[in-house]
Every structure is written in structure tokens, then in C-alpha cells.
Write a structure and sequence with these properties.
With 459 residues, the protein is mainly alpha-helical. Helices cover 68% and strands 3% of the residues. It has 19 helices and 4 strands. Helix 2 runs antiparallel to helix 5, helix 13 crosses helix 17 and helix 13 packs across helix 19. The longest helix is centred in the middle third of the chain and has 34 residues. The chain starts with a helix and ends with a strand. 44% of the residues are buried.
């Protein structure tokens, strides 16, 4: 069903693109100078976009279900080409050029935007980066929606009769772009959910929160560009595009700093592996499992970031031990000793400069789950699972480890967390078998049900 839904969205964008290109080629380009200027602006925006997901860390980090690492999707990644998006929206809302009415219409708007976007993407493909199909599909559908709401009303004269050319027109454009941004957020969350299998609700919430950042800047720039060209002509485009271009560069620097910060924490977490206290890759596996479970439980971006950092550093307290724990399996240690190591780990985490919430999660991961915050519950369960399947205590492997975790739901592990972990682990195998996996139901009192596999058709 997810693959079918993604193909439907892409197919709708492809049909709209073919119709727009065919109509434009048959009837010719209206006002080619204006179309060329906006096309160049959109192409420059695509050329300057950030290639999210091209880094080695993003390529290599996968969760147990085979999906990309379930950490946060940052605002800069949601809008990799803000200048191109603003230019496309401005062309869709362009009614005048230096006081003269325009007549490019909806289909030409889509055709110009698609042609310019493909020209910019071609450079990324030549460098070995695959085309962002979902990004192009969203661009086509959102620009088509904005143009369909504005162009017919303006060209027919009904919009000018009702709102005029003063502040009411500006208010109308702002409201229209707000509705367009809302539709784009819904579409982006749907495509992300179809692609990754993550719950739709948290994805939509994060997309809506991102509208307050780069999304609002794109909408505001699109309105200002359309109004500026209407008064001053095409010379307004390069002047009005500079602030958003600088904003895009700032986002790239911030994302680079965040990437470096995460790599530093990952390197620090590997200290226990290098010293022989934990098995190789243990911290990364626990972090991937924790983030995947956190997604299923509906955590926000901020919470997922804290969860990932805490999961990477959860064993840092073992460096205080004289003799390493066999295989680094702290889940089998006495409760008092496990809590002592967790408290020491929290103190080490505070010295690294991570957010205070990370240290709290690290030092409380060994407490009884009823006394823990939800992030500490997730880290404890993911760590225990990796310890169990990595040792020789369970020849039965994953299923036996999950059953032992379920037996510990009275004191050690929260039932909801255990069942979400089971869902994450079984999701990939269920897809291969052509089955539909139902998410575990929770009653709000800490009692979870097991994930059920329902036979179904592949896709």
C-alpha cells in the first residue's frame, strides 16, 4: 500500500507535467522573457540546493528494518532548494510585470518550473547524486495548486474586482501561500511516511513546525518577489533573491555544524568499543533501534535528537570500571551496579557539553521504568535487546530475546516500548513476505498489545 501510494503521487505529478509541457510546446511560450528570467532563478536555486542524504553517515546509517536512520529530518533538509521554491511560487502568483498584465497561465507555469528544476537537477545527477523524485513531485503539485488558485481568478479580472490592487491583494496572496504551504506539508509528510514507514502523525507535526522556519521565509519571499516584479519589473528578482540565498547558505553552515557535532559524539561513543568494554557497533545499533522506536511512539524532532545522542553515549560510564563487563552486557548486571555505571555516564555526558536532557537520559537508563522518562525507557529496552541477541544467552535469537523483554515488563521494561521494538524488528520481514503489519495498540495505561501480522499482497 505504501509503494502504491507513493507511485500514485508521482504519477499525478508526471501527468500534470506531461500535460503542461505538451500544452506549452503546442501553443508556444507566452512572454518568453519573463519565463526565461524566472526559469534561470529556479535553476540557480536548484544548483545551490543542499544534497541531503548524500553524506556517508546518512548513506550508511540504517535502522534494523532497512530504512534510513530514524533521527530528525532537519528544516534545511525539508526545503533543500528554498530559492528555487520561492521563485516557482512567485511565478505562479505573478499577475503583472512592471504594471503590464501577464498571461502565462497555469500550465505554462508548471512547464517552466519543471523545465528549470530538471535543468538544475541535471548538474547533481552528473555529479553522481540521484534525482530527488519526491522533491520534484512536491514542487510540481504545490506550484500547480498555487497557480490554479491564482491565475484563473486574476486573468478573468474577478480577483481585481473583489480585492483590488492594494493591501487586500497582499493579504490574499499571503493566505493563498499559507494554504499552499499547508498542502505541501501534508504532501511531504505523506511521502515521507510512504517511503520510510514511520507514523504519519509525528511526521506531519514536524513538517508543520518547520513552516515557522524556512517555510515562512520561502512564502514571504515568494509574495515579495511577485509584488516587486509587478511594480519594478524583472530587475527586482536578483535584488529580492539575495536575502533568501544568504539564508540558504546559513542553513548549510548550521547543518554542517550539526553533522560535525554528531560525528564528535559518535566518535566519543566508540571509546568504549576501542577500549574493549562493548562489542563493535553496539552504540550505533542501540541508537538506530532507539530512534526507530521513538518514531513509532510519536516523538518530536527535538526528542529524537536527544534520544539519539543519549543512545550513542549510554555505555560511556563503563570506562570507570577496572574490569570490563563480559561482552559489555550491562542488562544482565545487578541493578545497583548498573545504576552506578549509568550515573557515572551521566556525569561524563555533562562534561562533553551535550544538552542537559541527554545526561539525564544516560544516568536514568537503569532505573525502574515507572520512574524513568520515556527516552530513558527506550534506551534501556534497546540496549537490553542488543545485549541479549549479541551474546550466547539466547540461541533462539531475536524472538527469544523479545520474549525475555516481555517477561520483564513488570519492572524493567515498559510494555509499549517492547511492543514498538517488536514492530520495528518485524516490519522489514513482513514486507518481504507480502504481509501487512499492524501497529501495536496502546491503551494509555502502559499496557501494550503485540504487533500482529495480517496476510496481504506485496506493495
Amino acid at each position: 500500500m505504501r509503494a502504491w501510494g507513493a507511485r500514485t503521487v508521482r504519477a499525478a505529478a508526471a501527468v500534470l507535467t506531461l500535460v503542461a509541457l505538451g500544452h506549452t510546446l503546442w501553443h508556444g511560450v507566452t512572454e518568453p522573457g519573463t519565463a526565461l528570467c524566472f526559469g534561470i532563478l529556479i535553476t540557480i536555486g536548484e544548483l545551490a540546493r543542499r544534497d541531503s542524504g548524500d553524506s556517508r553517515d546518512a548513506r550508511d546509517a540504517r535502522d534494523p528494518a532497512g530504512h534510513p536512520r530514524a533521527a530528525q529530518v532537519r528544516a534545511g533538509d525539508r526545503q533543500p532548494a528554498p530559492l528555487g521554491s520561492a521563485g516557482a511560487l512567485a511565478y505562479a502568483l505573478l499577475g503583472q510585470n512592471a504594471g503590464q498584465p501577464t498571461h502565462h497561465g497555469v500550465l505554462q507555469t508548471v512547464a517552466v518550473v519543471v523545465a528549470a528544476a530538471l535543468a538544475g537537477i541535471a548538474a547533481h545527477v552528473a555529479r553522481g547524486h540521484g534525482p530527488a523524485l519526491d522533491h520534484v513531485a512536491r514542487r510540481v503539485l504545490t506550484v500547480g495548486f498555487a497557480a490554479a488558485c491564482f491565475q484563473p481568478l486574476y486573468n478573468s479580472g474577478r480577483l481585481e474586482e473583489r480585492v483590488g490592487q492594494g493591501p487586500y491583494l497582499v493579504l490574499f496572496l499571503v493566505l493563498l501561500l499559507g494554504l499552499t504551504a499547508l498542502c505541501d506539508a501534508v504532501l511531504a509528510a505523506a511521502l515521507a511516511g510512504l517511503r520510510t514507514g514511520w507514523p504519519y502523525g509525528p511526521l506531519l507535526r514536524d513538517e508543520l513546525r518547520a513552516l515557522l522556519g524556512i517555510g515562512s521565509a520561502i512564502c514571504a519571499t515568494g509574495v515579495v518577489m511577485a509584488l516587486g516584479v509587478a511594480v519594478a519589473g524583472l530587475w527586482a528578482l536578483p535584488v529580492l533573491s539575495v536575502p533568501l540565498l544568504l539564508t540558504q547558505m546559513s542553513f548549510r553552515r548550521i547543518n554542517a555544524i550539526r553533522t560535525t557535532y554528531r560525528q564528535t559524539i559518535t566518535s566519543l561513543a566508540r571509546a568504549t568499543e576501542i577500549a574493549g568494554y562493548t562489542r563493535p557497533g553496539h552504540a550505533r545499533r542501540v541508537a538506530a533501534l532507539s530512534c526507530a522506536v521513538g518514531r513509532e511512539l510519536g516523538l518530536s524532532e527535538r526528542e529524537l535528537t536527544v534520544l539519539e545522542y543519549a543512545a550513542l553515549m549510554h555505555d560511556i560510564g563503563q570506562l570507570s570500571l577496572i574490569d570490563p563487563v563480559p561482552a559489555g552486557a550491562t542488562a544482565a548486571m545487578p541493578a545497583a551496579e548498573a545504576r552506578r555505571i549509568a550515573v557515572l555516564g551521566g556525569e561524563v555526558a555533562r562534561q562533553t557539553g551535550v544538552p542537559p536532557e541527554v545526561a539525564v537520559v544516560v544516568e536514568r537508563q537503569a532505573d525502574p521504568y515507572r520512574d524513568q522518562p520515556v527516552l530513558a525507557r527506550i534506551v534501556r529496552t534497546a540496549n537490553a535487546y542488543d545485549d541479549l541477541v549479541g551474546g550466547d544467552r539466547h540461541p533462539g535469537g531475536s524472538l527469544a530475546a523479545l520474549e525475555q523483554l516481555r517477561l520483564g515488563t513488570g519492572h524493567d521494561h515498559h510494555p509499549d516500548v517492547v511492543e514498538c521494538l517488536a514492530y520495528v524488528l518485524r516490519r522489514n520481514s513482513s514486507r518481504r513476505d507480502g504481509a501487512r503489519l499492524e501497529r501495536p495498540k496502546r491503551d494509555g495505561r502502559g499496557r501494550g498489545g503485540r504487533a500482529r501480522v495480517v496476510p496481504g499482497r506485496p506493495g
